[in-house]
Write a structure and sequence with these properties.
single chain; 243 residues; alpha+beta; four-stranded mixed sheet; 4 strands; 58% helix; globular
Length: 243
């Protein structure tokens, strides 16, 4: 009996490995790549040098989890959910070159890395499109389900932990709005076809008007992304629905 059990476990493990190979590389392979780790770390240092909020591992992982969650909650097949996570994890890697047009730069950086890791070229094309089109300031628009999920996950990551300015008295409006956000959660209702960004904001740090002043264009992009996924988009702040 013990021998049969060992053989069964070995066969199961072999089938699991073979299935993983058929499905293709995963986010874990991307996270483990030395170039990716180096570029994301350096990109975060460089955005910090010019006064931007955190764009490092924390943001990359938060966006990857969020993009996967959105598509999974809407019933998309597992491989597409994985591609969304990969694209979201890599979406800001272009900041290692420059902040301007970092989406397009990042897409080209990702090409070589993803090829080396064994991603299929059709999948690489989807990931590149998502990375290149995530930024509203650069004319970004959802071009695929993966792209839409990346946009929603990225623009929903508003939180005080991203603020790097140690002096609250020196905060600009971007710092104030991010520091005022004490929680941010993406909620997805497949039944209602609704994606909601639920924020808690300390209005003593930043009034709601400042949030809209900074993030209105981002929320419009989120609405377009939700519509691409055949959903509505709602913004709820401090338990009050505003959009």
């Amino acid at each position: 009996p013990d021998t049969r059990a060992k053989v069964h476990r070995a066969e199961t493990k072999t089938k699991t490995v073979q299935e993983a190979k058929r499905q293709g590389p995963t986010l874990d392979a991307v996270r483990g790549d030395h170039r990716v780790r180096t570029f994301i770390r350096s990109a975060n240092q460089q955005t910090g040098a010019i006064g931007y909020t955190e764009h490092g591992e924390r943001h990359a992982n938060t966006c990857a989890d969020g993009a996967r969650f959105i598509l999974r909650s809407l019933g998309h097949e597992p491989r597409r959910c994985e591609l969304a996570a990969v694209a979201a994890y890599l979406h800001d890697i272009g900041n290692v070159v420059t902040r301007e047009k970092h989406g397009q730069t990042g897409a080209l950086i990702a090409l070589d890395i993803l090829e080396d890791l064994g991603f299929d070229h059709e999948e690489i094309a989807v990931i590149m499109g998502a990375i290149a089109n995530h930024e509203e300031a650069e004319g970004g628009l959802p071009v695929s389900a993966v792209s839409a999920a990346v946009i929603l996950a990225d623009k929903s990551d508003v939180h005080r932990s991203r603020v790097r300015n140690p002096k609250t008295t020196a905060f600009d409006i971007h710092d104030r709005v991010n520091f005022a956000a004490t929680s941010a959660e993406i909620k997805v209702s497949r039944k209602e076809k609704l994606i909601t960004l639920d924020l808690t904001i300390d209005t003593e740090v930043a009034p709601l008007m400042e949030y809209f002043e900074i993030f209105l264009s981002r929320m419009m992009l989120c609405r377009r992304a939700a519509e691409f996924l055949h959903c509505g988009f709602a913004l709820q702040i401090n338990n009050t629905r505003l959009l």
